[in-house]
Structures are given as structure tokens and as C-alpha cells.
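To assess whether ligand presence alters the predicted conformation, the chain was also submitted together with adenosine-5'-diphosphate. Input:
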Amino acid sequence: MATNSTPTNSASSATPAPLPPSPKKGTKLSSQRIAILISVLVAGIIAIYLGISPYLEFKQRVLGLALTFSACFLLVYFSYEALIFREINNIYASLEKFKRKEFKQMSNKFLFRPDPLQRIKDEIYHLAERNQKEIEELKRLQAMRREFLADVSHELKTPIFAAQGFIHTLLDGAMDDERVRDKFLQKAAKSLDGLDTLVQDLITISQLEKGVIQMKKKTFDLNELGQEVLEQLESKAKARNITIHLLNAPEESFMVIGDRGRIKQVLINFMDNAIKYGLENGNIWLSFQDGKKKTLVTVRDDGPGISKQHHNRIFERFYRIDKSRTKDTSGGGSGLGLAISKHIVEAHKSVIVIDSEVGKGTTLRFKLIKAKA
Ligand code: ADP
């Protein structure tokens, strides 16, 4: 049931265009072979003429044949080598230089292979294959970028339009009624707060993706952080009659190495989701468990659960299971919380593991490196 949080992007599932067929390693055409073939042909024709001639002895015929064969061979071989194969070798050398510049891992052991035509075919095939992969990757990134832009504009539109609506209604006369004025101003402020959260989250995720944000890793006590998170979320949980249970005793300590502020952000996101999406009168359990080198962090709820098809996708930016539940009706966040959490946990060299089934609640786990005693 447990699933790793590695994202599966919709765009990445697109089937890549078929690659050109690999060059067949069949008959090899080298200058020697061509020279031998032509020489045998010419010598064969001469042999027929010499055979018919009544003036020549057997020895002279053999000598004539050998001389014709050798002359033909040398002539054809050197003209091919000099004119065609050397040119091809030059092209190959340029290709090899170009390739080594860009793809350093390619070995140059093929440099001295005796068959330049086959070599060139191989090289062109490898380059085409690489280029094709690069094109596929660029197309995938472009699709992702387009999708991201569409999502961002949609997410920005919602709170802006809401705040705009309330303010215009007030300006159109609703301001005169004190009760309506307060209510609409509060709603406009709530929408703008949502907008602020969204923009902050967008900045955070883009900085995390660019690698600008460095984790400030220090030793800290996870259990103490757990208490802090509980205090911060207690009133929100109470509003839905949800109980948060800390499974470890307050005097226990779990010293780990990590960025305390960022790990707090992850715990808040997990527990805030459990409050938002959990059932009223439900429960949330937070626990820490020491292993040999790492400490396991577990957040569990007895909410509606998440079906397997969404397990990887909920870590994508803006992915929501229930698209119809907007921020206003579900109290949902920016849709970036788990994407940000995934980046933070990965920056701590760990992964978020999800264990959930519809109707059976949700458990999220990750590990942190234990601090040395
Ligand atoms: P949001 O801002 O929408 O909460 P998140 O990235 O935090 O964004 O979560 C993505 C989606 O995953 C949520 O919209 C919700 O559908 C689902 N989800 C997250 N946590 C839970 C949970 N504990 N129980 C049920 N669904 C959840």
C-alpha cells in the first residue's frame, strides 16, 4: 500500500517518438574489400583474354594475371583510401570532437575501428538518439511550463476576483450598512490573505526548485518541535472537533539533524491537511521513532483517506483530489503544500512515504538523520 512520493508528471507519461532503427552490423565495406573485389573482377576478365591467346605460355599467363591483380588492387585501394575513406575519416573525426565536447562519457575506443562507414553510421545513430531524447525532454518541460502557467493564473484569479467583487459591492453602496461593510471587508481581507499565502508558496517552491534555498541544518529536538506544532494548530483542530495526539511522552527527546524551520513547515502542512480534509470529531496522531541512524516521523489521521491513483499526484504542484472543493468551501490551501514538503524532505535526503486507502485514513512518513549522542 505504501507508495513513494516520486512525482509522476502527466506530461512525462507521453509515449516518446520511436527512435530510428539501430544500424545493422552486416557486411562491412572497407577499402580493402572493395579493392579486392574490383581487382578480382578485372584480373578475371584479363585471365579470360590471356587464356584465349595462343601466343603466351602458362607461366606468362599467371604472371600477367598476378600483375593485373596487384596493380588493380593498389590503384583501387589507394584511390579509395585517399579520396573517399580519408574524407569520411575527417568527417568522423569532426563528429567525434563534437560528441566528446558535449557527451564526455562517450569513450573514444571506436576511433581506431577499421570500418569508417559502419563507424559513421553508428555515430550518427547515437547522436540522433541523444538528440531525440533531448527533444522529448524539452517537449515535456515545455508542456509542464504551460500547465504551470495555466495553474498559476487560475489560482491567482480566484482570490483577486473575490476581493475585487467585495470591494466593488461596498463602493456601490453596501458600505452604508455597517454590518454588511464589516462582513465584506473581512471577506476581502481573507481573499487577500489567501493570495499572500499563494504568492509566498510560489516563491518558496520556485526557490526550492532552483536550489536557491539552502537548508540550515542544525541539531534539534523533534519532540519539542512536535509540541510547538500542536500548540499552533490546536485551535484550528478544535474548530472541527479534531483531537491531536502526541504519542511520545513530553520528556522524551529525539535529537535529529535538519533545518528546524523547514521541518516545522512540513509537519504543519501534514497536520493542517489532516485537519482540513479529516472528518469532524476525528483524530490525528504524531509520533517519532528512533532507528539505528535515522528517526522516523509519522503523521496519521482517521480521515477519508486517499485512493492509490492519487498517491503520487498529490505531491505535484496544484494537484487537488477534489477539484470542486475550492478554498472557500474546504478551507484548502494553495495546492502547493505537499509539493513544498516533498522538496524539503528530499533536501534532507529522505522521501515522503504515503500509506492510505479510501475510508481508512492517511499516514505520511519520512526519516531524519539522528544527531550523534
Ligand atoms: P492543499 O493546499 O490543497 O491542501 P496540498 O499539496 O497540501 O494542497 O495537498 C494536495 C491534495 O492532497 C489536497 O488538495 C487534498 O486533496 C489531498 N490531501 C492531502 N492531505 C490529505 C489528507 N490527510 N487526507 C485527505 N486528502 C489529503
